[in-house]
Design a protein that fits this description.
This protein is of the alpha/beta class and 556 residues long. The protein has 15 helices and 19 strands. Among the domains are: 105 residues, Response regulator (Rossmann fold, 3-Layer(aba) Sandwich); 163 residues, Histidine kinase-like ATPase, C-terminal domain (Heat Shock Protein 90, 2-Layer Sandwich), CATH 3.30.565.10; 118 residues, Response regulator (Rossmann fold), CATH 3.40.50. The structure holds adenosine-5'-triphosphate and magnesium ion (MG). Adenosine-5'-triphosphate binds next to helix 8 and helix 10.
Length: 556
């Protein structure tokens, strides 16, 4: 019991005798203020206006009877300790009063003063403990709420983390896939370049020898016919090798500034006349900046290959082929690791054809991958497009859904370089000066003998040598005996360029023709500035050889 302050006791008792007795007992509490209310209304009214520490409550009042009396007090003052005063033998009522919220009960006339005092003390202590428990419970609830809030916050953070990780994982997978694709294409490129080089060296003598034989064969004979067939086949093979090489060729080609819009419109016009009329061709071209550094033939090849594929995918049903060109700015992106950020031309070729599955889409850029019949497609179209774009610093992406169509997007970097005027077209088929002595050097036996043969047929004297060092020594002995040197570029000992330099040191006016393969990286301007008269790309035809010779000799 708090002894610092006075104890407020409200005695609700209508019987003056009982009230008197109880007040007498309570008198022994030194610091107590005892107020007597004779009915419940007066009691409740007092409780509203004054602080009371405990209430002694008779259950039979003039204005309230039994349990109802307890309930009404509890309803108004839930935390006030109540000691119920009951009549004789009313145990059941007393117990119910405890259930209704009273702390204790006394049977009137039967209790000793100490019992009442103890009951008051216990009631107040119980009440205090209850209050303490309540406060503690509220505190606990607050703690639980706070903890729940923290857990929920942490949960949502975790969820965000999980989502972030999932996204990163997906991005990583995408990048890995791109890397695998890029490695695959690079390995295929090296492989293709290797075989193409060898194929060309084999093709060269076939073409030259067949052309020589054709000159001798009587037109109209079966021999002439067959030789023509062989030559045709060889040329087809040469074209194929050219395609393989444009897939694998290294990127150090010298491109010139060129405009893309006229090329696209011309190519679309060309396609209009060659594609069936059930394919509607739409074009939307809005590209104020349209200059790129490139090779027009190769850029045209991109458009042609994409549009042909689109037309094939549309097939015999009605469909639409949409070609659009626009300017776009590319941010640096892991999706295009090889591309610099900057201004690009964005060419989209979209069709309403049969589309592709994911499996097909994963392989379309591989050389020789085709889903078309043997005579319909070689599978080189997109491989070539991919190679060309790589060398132009561009890229290609594809989106497709089976049954819905496909959309190829091509990016080409825009250049600020000014367009140069084209050099005048070269004059072909001029007359060849058919006499003189040629020094011919090539480390490949077959090429050497075919070229020697062809040159002889053109009327030249030929000294044909496999060994470049030996060729130098032969030349050294009689520098003025030769009118022309035709040499291969890639040879053991002295390379074609080294040999040419040495020969020109001895005789600066000696015309030199340098034979190069597709794989040889040589800049034509640079070769010419060194004094080399002509570059001849293997496998050349007899006509190309003649033209090169005539141009080389022209200035001598
Ligand atoms: N627009 C397209 N719609 C649906 N599938 C396409 C489309 N473009 C390409 N493909 C698929 O990609 C494959 C490879 O195309 P690619 O151009 O490299 O070779 P191809 O067209 O089969 O033969 P080629 O171009 O050498 O004549 C095609 O066989 C086809 O399955
Ligand atoms: Mg194709």
């Amino acid at each position: 019991m708090n002894t610092d302050k006075r104890l407020g006791i409200l005695l609700v008792e209508d019987n003056p005798g009982d009230a008197y007795l109880i007040r007498e007992i309570l008198r022994s509490i030194p610091a107590a203020d005892i107020i007597n209310a004779e009915n419940l209304e007066a009691a409740l009214d007092h409780l509203k206006r004054h602080a009371v520490d405990i209430i002694l409550l008779d259950l039979s009042l003039p204005d309230s009877q039994g349990l109802d009396t307890v309930r009404r007090v509890v309803a108004q003052m839930p935390m006030l300790p109540i000691i119920v005063l009951t009549g004789l033998d009313d145990d059941i009522l007393a117990l119910d009063a405890l259930k209704a919220g009273a702390q204790d009960y006394m049977v009137k006339g039967l209790f000793e003063p100490e019992m009442l005092m103890r009951s008051i003390r216990y009631a107040m202590e119980r009440k205090m403990v209850e209050e303490e428990l309540n406060r503690y419970r509220e505190h606990l609830e607050e703690l639980v709420k706070e903890r729940t809030r923290e857990i929920e916050e942490r949960n949502s953070q975790l969820q965000e983390e999980i989502n972030g990780r999932k996204q990163a994982e997906e991005e990583k997978k995408g990048l890995e896939n791109q890397l695998i694709q890029a490695h695959k294409m690079e390995a295929l490129g090296r492989f293709a370049g290797g075989i193409a080089h060898d194929l060309n060296n084999i093709l060269y003598p076939i073409i030259i020898d067949t052309e020589s034989l054709l000159e001798d064969a009587e037109p109209g004979t079966s021999m002439h016919l067959m030789l023509n067939q062989i030559l045709k086949a060889a040329h087809r093979q040469k074209d194929l090798v050219k395609q393989i090489l444009s897939f694998s060729r290294r990127s150090d080609q010298q491109f010139k500034p060129m405009k893309v819009v006229p090329l696209i419109t011309e190519t679309i016009d060309l396609l209009r006349s060659s594609l069936p009329s059930h394919i509607e061709i739409k074009q939307s071209i809005h590209a104020p900046s349209e200059s790129i550094l490139g090779d027009p033939t190769q850029i045209q090849q991109i458009i042609m290959n994409l549009c042909r594929n689109a037309a094939d995918a549309i097939g015999s049903q009605a469909g639409t082929l949409d070609v659009s060109l626009a300017n776009t700015y590319l941010e640096p992106s892991p999706a295009h690791p090889d591309m610099n950020a900057g201004q690009y031309l964005k060419l989209i070729v979209k069709d309403t054809g049969h589309g592709m599955t994911k499996e097909v889409m994963n392989r379309i850029f591989e050389p020789f991958y085709t889903t078309k019949d043997v005579d319909k497609g070689s599978g080189m179209g997109l491989a070539v497009v991919h190679g060309i774009l790589k060398h132009h610093g561009g890229a290609i992406t594809v989106e497709s859904e089976q049954g819905k169509g496909s959309r190829f997007t091509v990016y080409l970097p825009i250049t600020d370089e000014k367009l140069q005027t084209q050099p005048p077209a070269t004059d072909r088929g001029r007359s060849v000066k058919e006499k003189g002595e040629v020094l011919l050097v090539d480390d490949e036996d077959m090429i050497l003998s075919s070229l020697k043969n062809a040159l002889k047929r053109m009327g030249y004297e030929v000294v044909a040598l496999k060994d470049s060092q030996e060729a130098y020594e032969v030349f050294l002995k009689a520098p003025s005996g030769f009118d022309l040197v035709i040499t291969d570029l890639t040879m053991p000992k002295l390379s074609g360029i080294e040999l040419a330099n040495k020969l020109m040191d001895i005789r600066p006016d000696i015309p030199v023709i340098l034979c190069t393969g597709f794989n040889d990286v040589i800049d034509e301007d640079e070769a010419k500035s060194m004094g080399i008269r002509e570059l001849l790309l293997k496998p050349a035809s007899t006509n190309e050889l003649k033209t090169a010779i005539s141009r080389a000799l022209e200035n001598s």
